[in-house]
Fold this protein.
Amino acid sequence: MERLLAAGLVLAASLTACAQVMPPGGAAKPERPREQGMGDVVPALNISDAGDLLTELEKADAGMRRLDADVLYDKTFALAGDRQVRLGTLWFQSTPTDDPQRPRRRFAIEFTKLYLDTRLQEDPITYIFDGQWFVEKDPKEKQIIRRQVVPPGEHFDPLRIGEGPLPIPIGQKREDIERAFQTTLLPPEDGLAPGPDASGDEKQEAQALITEVAGTRQLRLIPREGTEQARDFREIRIWYRRDTGGRLLPMMARTVSRDGNVALVKLANVKINAEGPPPARAFDQEPPGEGWTIRTEAWRGTGQ
């Protein structure tokens, strides 16, 4: 489930207003794309506590059918201190069903580049989740792995508490969030200061993050003991701001796993409800040519 959790984190930050891609400190810096709407006047965040934020977030996904974005997924491994940063593209779709409270949601993430510490290399890999199957397509190995992560005949919402790989308060009931997490509203800069042993590059990078989140509201989620989320995470932090239409949406997300790994997700060039379908390759689970192998792992139960 590690890859599903990672992909879920990317999706969790997908419903975003504005973000800029930031490469790892010390690396050759790729161009920083300018997010659409950056610099536009947006409504103020007149929110004073976590409860008010969660109440407003219950309807924050209203009318959102599709989202496309460039994505950065930055993970630091606690044990060895290694850092990996992947760059790619995200596609997210929400389709109405007979139950207006349960739309069918799916996402695909196509990573193309990988930073290993300061080295940039081509490393294409695609993750697809259609509500039942989680698919990994690896062009280098010419391999497709299909994992059925939901019981046959069922589908789950990748953002819903108790179902998805990473629950995020967007379009979910306040009481459901508070049942699973202790929630706290924090200043935007909280938790972003560099450590006492940070290098010059790390201090510069931390300051850049603090500057970018100025004017947001930070929500900290601590999983309650005995919950599904407590098995995977120590904490989840999400930074919210309003878009130019007044909708309250995440701009950045960061998690700390039970083993101490830290993952950060940021997006750029976000397009909401773009016309036409996503590229055909986005949700294609079939091999693109000859010589590929396909491995299918059917549903084995909740412990898989």
Confidence is low (pLDDT under 50) at residues 1-7, 9-42. The longest strand covers residues 83-95. Residues 2-37+46-297 form a domain with the outer membrane lipoprotein receptor (LolB), chain A fold (CATH 2.50.20.10).
